[in-house]
Every structure is written in structure tokens, then in C-alpha cells.
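Narrative of activities, Objective 1.

The group set out to show that a structural description can be obtained from nothing but a protein's sequence at a throughput compatible with the screening campaign. Below is one input-output pair from the validation batch, recorded exactly as produced.
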Amino acid sequence: MQVLVYGAGQLAQMMYLDGAALGIDVQAVDVSNNTVVHPVSKQPLDCSLEQAIERADVLTVEFEHVPEALLETAEQSGKLHPNKDAILVGADRVREKALLERLNIPNCAHRIVTDLTQLDECVEALGERLIIKASRDGYDGYGQWRLSQKADLPALKKQLEGLDLVRVPLVVEQMLKFDREVSLIGARNVSGDIKVYPLAENLHYQGQLHVSVAPATNSDDALTAKALEIFSKLVEGMDYVGVLAVELFQCGDTLLVNELAPRVHNSGHWTQAGADTSQFENHLRAVLDLPLGDTTNIGGDAAVSAMVNIIGCDDHDLALLGLPGVHFNWYGKTVRNKRKMGHINVTASGYKALGSKLEQLSGYLSADHFPELVDEAARLQK
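Output recorded for this entry:
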């Protein structure tokens, strides 16, 4: 079995590593130059993109910002999972909002802006506290602006001058006072079987995910059922195949969709050490229409996991490998500010034990680059 992944980053690398155990040959496409490469070494392989498409059983993606011309060719092959329209939904917030409205899925109150004069109408309709997002090419806090009071609107308009809002509209959302962000990672295979992982609770810093904890604290069957209903509507409404990540704002007992990611996702990395079957293996199983693997936590109902992102640094102490239940993953990238360099998965038999392990882990990491870790460790130990 052979799978060709569009994108040659760490997600393709982790798919390759999990696929090898199943006898699945995973190759990657560097979409900047259409070169087929080895997902780990990044060395070019001795075949053209056309040859790789012909040989592959399935084509898939590791990120949603694949050039549309490449996606169109992939779709025409009849081998692409998830389908092109689903991938484009993840790459374009306007398409994403249209899908959520069509499927009657709760999401943040919003307006689409193609001219800066429309911002005045947004304030009148949504209030003066707003989140403004570029509809494309924005992630990890990039391409986002905030309005805290109406008096700052002229300055915000000036800041946005020069943007081509006809080509890349803005999605303007009401700034919510939500309790927390959770995410649901799940998979649907070609046959329509669905399996989801426990809800993960996500902690962000400066627009980037820093820590995920799964299962989410203070979650119950009712909350999980609401998330599963949303997930099921989405995958069936898009005829989706593969792993899908759904980021959700929790406001009391209500869940609102924040964003969709049509691929394996950062908040699901904990599944490598904490779940019976990782999200990477289940994505390959799904797109190849193999039986989906068990998504429950290893260790039973008391077992919990955390994922800690390593962002913009390489100054960790590898003595952390001596900590029980700690699993280190390094991507082999050149250090750059705000760049995801790797992640650490931590498993434990309960939230207090997990908090204790995260506290121990913090001693091997720079506090400057992991500013939320100590507080999260303390929260879990309460």
C-alpha cells in the first residue's frame, strides 16, 4: 500500500513512521516545488509527481494550504481523501463559515467584510469587541486583529489599509467570553465508520497552542455527545474521509465551532503515547478504508495525557528522557521564532499525577519558552 501526502512537514513525517509498522509506504510532496521527497530525510525520490500519483493507492494532505492547482490534479485522479472541497474549507474561513451555516452548526456570530467601510456595520451588529481574521493564510495567531472598543476603529482601519479584501476577505467575529477551548479529533473511513478520541482541552499563548490535555478536565457524557453530534454532521455533510479536527469554544453547556482542520492536528499529538491507536495511524487506516483503530486512552478510564509544544527554541535538557511517562518528539527544523520545533507527550494515571509530571518536566525546560506550563501543572494538581 502506498500513500502520497501533499506537504513534507512533521505531520507527513509522523504519518510515515506510523505507516511503516503497517507496511504502508508513505511519500511526501514538497508543494513549493512539486518534488516527491522522503517524509523523514526530505531527500528527493527518483520519480516525478505524475509518476507518484499513478503509483499511489491514495493521495492525502498534511495541511490545508496546498495550491489549488495541485489539489485539482489530485482530485481528478479519483484517489484524494479527504476530498478537495473539504480541504478548501479548512483553507478558507469564508467557505468554512458557509459550511457551518449550511449544516446549521453553532459557531461565533460573524460578518464577512470585503470593504473596510463594512467594519462600522460589524460594530453595530456584533458589538465593539471583535476578532478580525484574514479568511486565508492565517494560523498560529497570524492574520488576526482585535478591536476592544469602538474608539479604536479608525486606527484599526488604517492598519488594514492596503489589504486586498476582494481577493482575501475578512471574517469578523464577535469576541466571546468563552470558558475554554476544546477540540475533538476523529476519523471516518471510506466505508463511513466513525471513531473519535476523548475531548482535548487546549491552552494557548499568543495565539499558539502550548498544551493539550486529554481527556479534558470537567467534561461529561453530555458534553462529549454534543461534540460528537457536531463532528458527525460535519463528516457526513462533507462526505469526509480521514482524520478531522474540530476546535470548539465551550460557553457553559454550549459548544461553538471555532475552526476546522481537515487533517491530523496538533491537539491530537497526545494520541501517539496516550491512545491505543494514534491519529496518524488512524488517518492512514481511514483513507485506505482499513478498519479504524481503538481511540480510547491506554490505561483505562483513569489514564490522562498531555502534549506540550516546543516552540521557537532548542534549549531543552534531554535528561528529561529519564522522566517516566515522558515521550520526546523532535522535528529536525532550524530554530525560528514561533516555529513548532517538536513536542513532548506525557502520560499519567490521573490529573494530579499528570500535573506533578508536568511540574517535573518544567525543570528541564526554559521558562521563557514555556510560560504557561507551571500554571497548568498547578491547575491539574488542585
